[in-house]
Amino acid sequence: MNSKILMIVGDYGEDLEIYFPFQALTLLGFQVDAVCPQKKKQDKVKTAVHDFRDGDQTYMESRGHDFTINADFPQDPSQYAGLVLPGGRAPEYLRLHDEVLVVVEHFLKEKKPIVAVCHGIQLLTAVGGIEGKKLTCYPACKFEVTKQGGVYEKVGYDEVVVDGNIVTSPAWPGHANAFREFVKLLGVTITHK
Fold first, then answer.
1. Residue 14 β-bridge partners
2. Tens-of-pLDDT digits for all 193 residues of the chain?
3. Which of 90, 152, 158 is CA-nearest to residue 120?
4. Does the N terminus or the C terminus of the chain have fewer Cβ atoms within 10 A?
């Protein structure tokens, strides 16, 4: 089993959506290469914390932690078994980098496991290739899904939608479910004794 996972991050990506997958997948024995275009191994990205409060029309944002990039951006994505696309504000500008789009397109075309949380969907919609796929995301991104021919599924923030090789969740409260499904696609089953 290929145990290398690629995670594309950038400044003001959502803190939990970066740290949780990095730590959880590492705990399970995967090598997670966290990369960012125009940054090198050991550079840092700033994260943002998004919090949901009853009565607010959208999430509240505050400054998160610094996250250290642990690999250079890959020239060849074929070495990776799966792709993690965290949300936050980073995807809105990461999709402007051709090298990011090439990587995302590789995973879509090769039907390798992809997990996109929250605004991470913006990297899938920028590439296309989601026509007819059932997907979810932060509700503000649903029009990007439908304009690209995807089928937006409204689910709770702690729920997921799985369609083939793609796992999506609207926000970080869905991490446990999203990454359980993602690792299943990678051939890992988590059981309790």
1. 48
2. 679 999 999 999 999 999 999 999 999 999 999 999 999 999 999 999 877 666 666 666 778 899 999 999 998 999 999 999 999 999 999 999 999 999 999 999 999 999 999 999 999 999 999 999 999 999 999 999 999 999 999 999 999 999 999 999 999 999 999 999 999 999 998 787 7
3. 90
4. C
